[in-house]
Amino acid sequence: MLRGVLTGAAVAACTLWDDHAVTALAVPPLPHVAGGLLVQLVLLTPRVPARRAAVVPVLRTDARAVVVVPVLSPPAHVLVLEAMRTAPVSLVAPCASPPWWSGRC
User: Fold this and answer.
1) How many other CB atoms are there within 10 angstroms of residue 27's CB atom?
2) Which of 91, 104, 77 minimizes the C-alpha distance to 21?
3) How far apart are CA 105 and CA 89, in angstroms?
4) Which domain does 20 fall in, by range?
5) For the chain, how far is it from start to end, CA to CA, in angstroms?
6) How many CA atoms lie within 13 A of 24 on its CB side?
7) What domain count does the chain have?
8) Quick one: which of 22, 41, 12 has its CA closest to 83?
9) Which of 15, 76, 73 is nearest to 40 (CA)?
10) Distance between CA atoms of residues 105 and 99, nearest Å
């Protein structure tokens, strides 16, 4: 239960930071996302060799998801940030993550 609460709090904090960055700080969405991806690359790449034994089976069983998610997620994030520039975060955030098809938006 605690892990779920902490995860939700982290997601909310990231969403509010994204909104602040693109509205109050006027950071364009594309550089904001690109900068975040660069930070992830720098911080996570050194850990890959140590976890190679865990990575290989995932690549074998879920190769499609391993390719599709990193390709589609950044453009989707850029679109959400563009929406945040013109609409309140309270309207955009519920539609930014699944299940967006549930009719909440």
Assistant:
1) 16
2) 77
3) 12
4) 2-102
5) 27
6) 7
7) 1
8) 22
9) 73
10) 10
Tens digit of pLDDT per residue, the chain (105 long)?
999 999 999 999 999 999 999 999 999 999 999 999 999 999 999 998 999 899 889 989 999 999 999 999 999 999 999 999 999 999 999 888 776 666 667
Q: State the residue for tokens 């309270």.
A: 90
Q: Are 79 and 17 in contact (CB under 8 A)?
A: no
Residue located via tokens 């909440």 = 104
What's the per-residue H, E or C state across 1-52? CHHHHHHHHHHHHHHHHHHHHHHCCCCCHHHHHHHHHHHHHHHHHHHCHHHH
| Predicted TM-score (pTM) of this structure | 0.85
Q: Which distant-in-sequence residues (6+ apart) come within 8 Å of 30 by Cβ?
A: 78
**Amino acid identity at 79:** L
Q: Give Dmax (Cα) for the chain.
A: 45
